Each structure stands twice: as structure tokens, then as C-alpha cells.
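User: Here's a protein and a ligand (aspartic acid). What would the complex look like?
Assistant: Let me lay out the input and then the predicted complex.
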Amino acid sequence: MKKITALLIFCLVILPSVLLGQKGQFGEIKQLQGPQNPVIGFMIHGGAGVIKKGSLTPEKEKEYRDKLTEVVLAGYKALQDGKSSVDAVEIAIRMLEDSPLFNAGKGAVFNHDGKNELDSSIMDGKTLAAGGVAGLHHVKNPITLARAVMEKSPHVLMFGDGAEAFAKEQKIELVDEKYFFTQERWDELQKILKEEKEKSEKEKVKSQNSKPVNENNVPTAELPYNKFGTVGAVALDRNGNLAAGTSTGGMTNKKYGRVGDTPIIGAGTYANNNSCAVSGTGWGEYFLRLNVARDISAIMEYQAQTVQTAADRVIQQKLQKAGGDGGVIVMDKFGYMAISFNSEGMYRAYINSDGKPVVQIYKD
Ligand code: ASP
């Protein structure tokens, strides 16, 4: 009996005080074993496009910088608190979707019919599980629905009414279409529609055969308006798991149920613990044709290239040569990061090795 009492006192009183440390008496023991600084990493983007220095007013630029800082810190804090890379990606993208500054969620661009049509995807690098959603009109945070597709359904991709029915079933917040309206995006659509009308009137006069084409044989009238604004995030958590996510309203004036690269795993989003996590933004048709996100991962996996070399090879060489534009944020399994874009600018932010946020917009 005496032995049992002594053992109990040792286990309940003495052992915990030795392990945890008692301030003043034994000095503070912070951690007995294990890594002092688990490697974590976090990056976001708010879209690539023609964002020239001087094109934003100082006030607007500050708004972008403040929001990007707030979001990158929130995602990083989630990782510091021990949350998973998938959690951090969802948290950050929800914040970007809720901001009218970006072309995702609130602030999404309008399609040709004057509607907001949202796409998103997410991927877990540990399991290669993935979820994508396209053509949404009522889901407040498409990234959360993409995650539900990944975690709560046997499918990878859902679109339109079916995806929204699944959202309802999963009790994911639905909103009236009016929620997505912003005057700025509406005015952008009106401007484009007006230009389109003027162009088609002029073309009626000209012969159809003399329609100008660029070097890729794409009629120039169909080239997209060069301002994007999609959002995305990539993360590495303390368990060494990578994740990536992307969300968008697509491209202004898109027609016929057009779906871009953002909800497509391998095109706009990819994550694999054996290589890297990628989120892209840019002219979706090219990201789809080139399978941009998966291609970067494959170059790393099969050719053992560094994250920056792989990203540059796809963006600066392949995408550039094909005539597409845009950019990517990439994080590898060791926490090395790369940003590559061939557009004028790209809203982007990451946490550097000192744990400080770095926010950039232009080619600097
Ligand atoms: N990639 C998106 C799309 O084509 C647009 C963007 O990145 O801004 O739908």
C-alpha cells in the first residue's frame, strides 16, 4: 500500500513538476524534446495581371497591402497554433473571398449575362485528396464548399445546381446573388460590353477574312481583358503536410458556362507532399492546356529541380511561349518558396524566414 501511495505521489506531483518546470523553483523548462522551430510556411496571392506602378491610387494600394498582410498573418498564425495546412489555406482564402478587393467571393467579376459565377478548388498534399467546384451563384465561400467536396463526398469536382444542392446539404452558407455585386466589377463589364459592341459594328463593315489574329491564331477580339484577381494560398504545416487552394470569379464577360483553370486539379491548384503545393492565377485557358500546377509538381518530382527552377520553367518558358499570362505561388516540402509570373504584376504575400510578412504587388 505504501509503495502504491509513493508511486501515486511521484506520478501526480513530482513528475509533472519536473517535466513542466516550475518558475522560480527549478527554472522554466520550455520544451524537453522535439524541434524548437517546426518548419512551417505560408504564401498567398490575390491575382496576376496588368498592375502597373502608378495605376493604383496610394489609398487603394494601401488597402491591398493591408488586406494581404492581415490574411497572410492569419494563415501563418493558424499554422503556428498547430492547425493543418488545409485549415490555413481555407482560413486565408475565406478572408480573401470576403474582401471586395479581389475577384473571388464578394468582388467576383461578372459574366456576359451580368451574373457572378464562382469557381474554387483545394488539395491536400498528404493524401492527394482534392475538391473542386464550378459555376456557383449562391455560395458565399466557394473554398469551403470545395473542401466539403474533398472531405465529405466521394467526388472531386461538382458544378452548378448540383454543387449548390450539396452545399445546402452540408449547411454551407448560401447568399442571395446580390451579395456578390460590386459597382467596380459591374462598370468593368459595361465597359467591355460597350467596346465589344463597337468592335462588332466596325467588323460588319470589314470583310470577315481580314479579322486580325495574334501569333497563336486567337482572334484578337477574343483576347481576355488583362486584369485578373483570383486568390490562392499554399501552406506547409508542422507535420510536413502541404496544401493548396484557389478561388475565383473567373474572367469578366465569360460566356456559355465557361470554366477556367481554378477549379481544375492540376491546372490551377495542385499539392503533393513529395514535391510541392501550387496555386495559380492568369489566363485560365492556357493554365488548362498546359496543366500548369501539376507540371510544376512533376518537374520537381521527376527531375529533382528546385522550386524556383520548376516554377520559372513552366511560367517563364512554357506559358510565355504558348502566349498565356499569369503566375503561381509555390511551396516545397521543405518550406522553400517560389513566385513566378510573366504579367505586369501580381498581388502576393508570404512569411519570410524571420516570421515577418512580405507583401508585393509589382515586378519588384
Ligand atoms: N485563372 C482564372 C480563370 O481563368 C482567372 C484569374 O486567375 O484571375 O478563370
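Summary: Residues 47 and 229 are 4 Å apart (CA to CA).
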